Amino acid sequence: MLLSYYQELLTEAGCDEAGRGCLAGPVFAAAVILPKDFRHPLLNDSKQLKASDRDILRPVIEEKAICYAVASVDNVEIDKINILKASFKAMHLALEKLQQQPEFILVDGNRFYAYGTTPHACIIQGDGKYASIAAASILAKTYRDEYMQQLHGDYPHFGWDVNKGYPTKQHRDALREFGETPFHRKSFRLLPEQLELDL
């Protein structure tokens, strides 16, 4: 059972990101303020859910949330500032877009750059513990998946409709055959080092 809040006094926003470990595409983040009585039997960490369950939950979260916002930072900026900073920047952008500013922020993970003077708590595996972080993880994941699905139309060899930019065998085989796209993160190791020389 997910917890409804971390503390009771202040309005809380949950934050999470999707796409940190991908070789291509932006990192997406979401910020969600839920009513304290929000419940849904499917709600959980987005990584524990089937895509069909995430698709059921997204409109429910968007309808029932007090407010929510989604933002992204593209691969060019990821290469400039690094993926960790880009993830925090995407979270900050999502928080800025909220119609109501939170008084407290719950963040999935163990690190975060302070958002102005708003207090925050970092929760390791928070998307499996707190409803607002789980909701943010679902929005970030579904919006990012949709984006990668659109890119797949232009770059079908890479299988982004299935792997969403993560380093699968199909993705890496396509990189070897077709090379990088403008959406690949050049600061990432796109292919493993050669283990043996081709003689």
TrEMBL record:
Keywords tagged on the record: Cytoplasm, Endonuclease, Hydrolase, Manganese, Metal-binding, Nuclease
Gene Ontology molecular function, alphabetical: manganese ion binding; RNA binding; RNA-DNA hybrid ribonuclease activity
Source taxon at top rank: Bacteria
RNase H type-2 domain span: 10-199
Cofactors required: Mg(2+); Mn(2+)
Catalysed transformations (reactions): Endonucleolytic cleavage to 5'-phosphomonoester
Subcellular location: Cytoplasm
Cofactor note: Manganese or magnesium. Binds 1 divalent metal ion per monomer in the absence of substrate. May bind a second metal ion after substrate binding.
Manganese found in the keyword field: yes
GO cellular component: cytoplasm; ribonuclease H2 complex
Gene3D superfamilies reported in the protein's UniProt record: Ribonuclease H-like superfamily/Ribonuclease H (3.30.420.10)
Annotated EC: 3.1.26.4
UniProt key word Cytoplasm: yes
CDD domains the UniProt entry points to: RNase_HII_bacteria_HII_like
Binding site for a divalent metal cation: D16, E17, D108
InterPro entries: RNase_HII, RNase_HII/HIII, RNase_HII/HIII_dom, RNaseH-like_sf, RNaseH_sf
GO terms under biological process: DNA replication, removal of RNA primer; mismatch repair
Family label: Belongs to the RNase HII family.
Cross-referenced HAMAP family: RNase_HII_B (MF_00052_B)
General function of this protein: Endonuclease that specifically degrades the RNA of RNA-DNA hybrids.
PANTHER family, A to Z: RIBONUCLEASE H2 SUBUNIT A, RIBONUCLEASE HII
Designated name of the protein: Ribonuclease HII
